[in-house]
Protein: sn-glycerol-3-phosphate transport system permease protein UgpA
Amino acid sequence: MVRASPSSARARAHRRKEEAWALGLVLPAIGLFFLFYVVPLGQAVWLSLHQEDLFGRDLRYSGLENYRQVLADPAFWKSVRTTLLFALMVVPLELLLGLLAALLVWRPYPGVAFFRTLFFLTTAVPTAVAAVAWGWFLHPVGGYLNHALKALGLSPQPWLTSPELALPTLAVVTAWAGVGFTAILLTAGLQNIPEEVLEAASVDGAGPWTRFWRVVLPLLSPTLFLVGLLVLLKSLTAFGQIHLLTRGGPMESTTVWIYRVYQDAFFNFRFAYAASEGLLLFLFLVVLAALQFRLLGRRVHYA
Structure:
């Protein structure tokens, strides 16, 4: 029988001690995740399978009846279309602005720190503060933007009170709020591109535009893929700026999916119905993320 040496026994004891210490550090985070994510999700699933009275009492099991009612509701499908249209406006705009900002601060030059700070400020500003500032800026009577249009001899526009303009205006506000975070991630991706590759492309005669399309963009594709997914999920769950600037109006033109859930829960007091809408949104986001990984992930070039 071979006996373990004292050194190996001490090594195993030290490893077990480190594993116990690591587990102790991770357990609080796991507990908080379970408490604030898993438990509410389970409660939402349970609630969506029941019917309740106006005050949330007298719960009766109803199976999938709430889901059938939601899927047969024209107002629900209108909010879905509004959400998808909103995302189609926000995602390209924010990615384009974030990429332009990242390219601007990619290379070191005098004053680059100022621009990096300026872009990051859009992320540091809380949603409520940004919404109030945009509300002043876009006010139909006293807003700075309409004053500027008048000074140029143009007609003022009802940016937040027109059914045609409200959703595009909110898309611009949402893209502005996220461009700082997007630029930071894309700048990190640009700085990971090997300088030798860019120099080799220059030696081969590639100009700036060719280097961008043939070298920079393919090597940046993993970061672009991640940022695109984050921006898409954020745009599909945008709530704060919509609630503070338009409250779903005018004429429900900005009532997106998640705002429909809020209205049904806290204005119509249909909590089980709203739970069903929220869970359908959750499933939609999971399926959409999986499809994006499967379809677009193949076109990502990993160095």
Remarks:
- Residues 12-61 form one domain.
- The two ends are 50 Å apart (CA to CA).
- The first helix runs from residue 6 to 48.
- The chain has a mean pLDDT of 88.
